[in-house]
């Protein structure tokens, strides 16, 4: 998948200090998208060394300890002798690096590796400090392991994706260099002065056992959806304006009596965009109507519910960022205990929840677009916003494209997390499918960007066709900025795909929000 063709905004962070207490949403985005450097704190190095001493002591004992001196999964009953343990750790990485399909995006792999390093640095995994430092060195060098689309069931962590990353640390497999060229990982490590790791007891397992891929994709989706929901509030306001709707439904006193915070935020955003408009309030003119259609009138309620869902998803993400996900884990009292914290259910559920609300936001945006194009419902706009309807088709097929995207969004909203398929000889008999939920959410976010872009295209054209009426200052700023970005205004039919692509890039890059906020102030 070729996602995020125009770079989203990233936090202005150049160096991330990684300690034992987890990390932040902004730090994950900064590393994944902004190539921020990673430095392990002295506290993390000390915790790594202390937990390694515990693992080494257990490894010297005759009693078997899962992950230290046994096999894995359904093979955990076999005790592994000392001379075979290094081979065991290499073998688990090699055998689990079994992904198939196209490569996943560079930002996903960087988030995946950084989040695994976050857990390693917690001091609960028993990994040596030098292995953690190698993980940081690989990320800092801009080396990105080749990770494939398929291979994770979202339980026992994102096993195959993480195994491909661990393979790079061993100097095996393929990776992409900072120049974007895929080459043997060993060559890339050598060029950057990085010595491949020789894994010891438990380390191979500790590098594979986490929800890091699905969590990284959740965090980036949240960042993108926050921007998109603000963008959708703006396009909803523009559509209301182009349809000569009433802004009275956005009054704060109407939203405070149903105190969902997201709803109030969306209504306030729309009201601020519409301030000073000469187009609103004409619903009692030539063709009087008591109320606007639901897609216009209920825009804050639908977008607001999505905002509240994003807030909940961020709460889950932040809890997971504070977690140490591994099996077994090294506890502060020296015990090494098996557990089920690698199960991806908490992350998988919110990934699916976000796909649902994204689909609904896309659906209501498409309904507003269709209303703008229908001369029987647009209150005086020409059919399909065409220059000469009949000779010109206007934006007819732009709405077809938007409708196709909405239809796919509905399919993508079908939850992955309701599925489970047994693996590892029924030892792992219930899995989360969180990786699959994350992959389809990325597609959904990509499609939602395009849907919002089509509404922007239609709404700005509709506003410009309202001759004799003056749009709000914020709306005029949007029209000016979007035209400067290469999205053309009304006129005879032309090749539409370039206009739609320019609108997509404008929304995706944050240009729409940036055009409005100098007029409105910062929007929620």
From TrEMBL:
Catalytic activity: L-histidine = trans-urocanate + NH4(+)
Compartments reported by the entry: Cytoplasm
Cross-link (5-imidazolinone (Ala-Gly)): 155-157
Post-translational modifications: Contains an active site 4-methylidene-imidazol-5-one (MIO), which is formed autocatalytically by cyclization and dehydration of residues Cys-Ser-Gly.
Keyword Cell inner membrane belongs to the record: no
Residues with PTM 2,3-didehydroalanine (Ser): 156
Keywords assigned by UniProt, alphabetized: Cytoplasm, Histidine metabolism, Lyase
EC number: 4.3.1.3
MF annotations from Gene Ontology: histidine ammonia-lyase activity
UniProt enzyme class: lyase
Pfam family name, one: Lyase_aromatic
Superkingdom of origin organism: Bacteria
Keyword Lyase: yes
UniProt xrefs under CDD domains: PAL-HAL
HAMAP family linked: His_ammonia_lyase
PANTHER family: HISTIDINE AMMONIA-LYASE
Annotated family: Belongs to the PAL/histidase family.
Protein name in the entry: Histidine ammonia-lyase
Species per Swiss-Prot/TrEMBL record: Streptomyces cremeus
Lineage: Bacteria, Bacillati, Actinomycetota, Actinomycetes, Kitasatosporales
């Amino acid at each position: 998948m070729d996602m995020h063709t125009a770079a989203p905004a990233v936090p202005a962070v150049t160096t991330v200090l990684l300690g034992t207490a987890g990390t932040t949403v902004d730090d994950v985005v900064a590393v994944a998208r902004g190539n921020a450097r990673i430095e392990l704190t002295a506290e993390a190095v000390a915790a790594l060394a202390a937990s390694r001493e515990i693992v080494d002591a257990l490894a010297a004992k005759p009693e078997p300890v899962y992950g230290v001196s046994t096999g894995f999964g359904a093979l955990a009953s076999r005790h592994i002798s000392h001379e075979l343990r290094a081979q065991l750790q290499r073998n688990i990485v090699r055998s689990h690096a079994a992904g198939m399909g196209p490569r996943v995006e560079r930002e996903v792999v960087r988030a995946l590796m950084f989040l695994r390093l976050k857990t390693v640095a917690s001091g609960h995994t028993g990994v040596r400090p030098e292995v953690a430092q190698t993980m940081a060195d690989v990320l800092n060098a801009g080396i990105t392991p080749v990770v494939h689309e398929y291979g994770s069931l979202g339980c026992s962590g994102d096993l195959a994706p993480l195994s491909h990353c661990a393979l790079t640390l061993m100097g095996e497999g393929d990776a992409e260099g900072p120049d974007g060229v895929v080459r043997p990982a060993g060559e890339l490590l050598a060029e950057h002065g990085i010595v491949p790791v020789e894994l010891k007891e438990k380390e191979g397992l500790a590098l594979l056992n986490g929800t890091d891929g699905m969590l990284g994709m959740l965090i980036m989706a949240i960042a993108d959806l926050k921007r998109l929901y603000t963008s959708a509030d703006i396009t909803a306001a523009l559509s209301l304006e182009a349809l000569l709707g009433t802004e009275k439904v956005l009054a704060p006193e109407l939203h405070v009596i149903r105190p969902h915070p997201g709803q109030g935020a969306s209504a306030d955003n729309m009201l601020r965009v519409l301030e000073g408009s000469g187009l609103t309030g004409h619903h009692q003119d030539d063709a009087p109507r008591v109320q606007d259609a639901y897609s216009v009138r209920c825009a804050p309620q639908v977008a607001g519910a999505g905002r509240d869902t994003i807030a909940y998803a961020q709460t889950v993400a932040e809890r997971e960022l504070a977690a140490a996900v591994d099996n077994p884990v090294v506890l502060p009292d020296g015990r090494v205990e098996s557990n089920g914290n690698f199960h991806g259910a908490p992350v998988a559920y919110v990934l699916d929840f976000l796909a649902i609300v994204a689909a609904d936001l896309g659906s209501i945006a498409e309904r507003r677009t269709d209303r703008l194009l229908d001369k029987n419902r647009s209150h005086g706009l020409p059919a399909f916003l065409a220059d000469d309807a009949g000779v010109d088709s206007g934006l007819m097929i732009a709405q077809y494209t938007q409708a196709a995207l909405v239809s796919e969004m509905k399919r993508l909203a079908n939850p992955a997390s309701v599925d489970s398929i047994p693996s590892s000889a029924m030892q792992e008999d219930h899995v989360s499918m969180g990786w699959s939920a994350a992959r389809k959410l990325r597609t959904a976010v990509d499609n939602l960007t395009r849907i919002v872009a089509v509404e922007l295209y239609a709404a700005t054209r509709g506003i410009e066709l309202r001759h004799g009426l003056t749009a709000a200052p914020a709306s005029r700023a949007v029209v000016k900025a979007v035209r400067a970005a290469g999205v053309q205004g009304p006129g005879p039919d032309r090749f539409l795909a370039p206009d739609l692509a320019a609108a997509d890039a404008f929304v995706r890059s944050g240009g729409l929000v940036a055009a409005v906020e100098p007029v409105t102030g910062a929007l929620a």
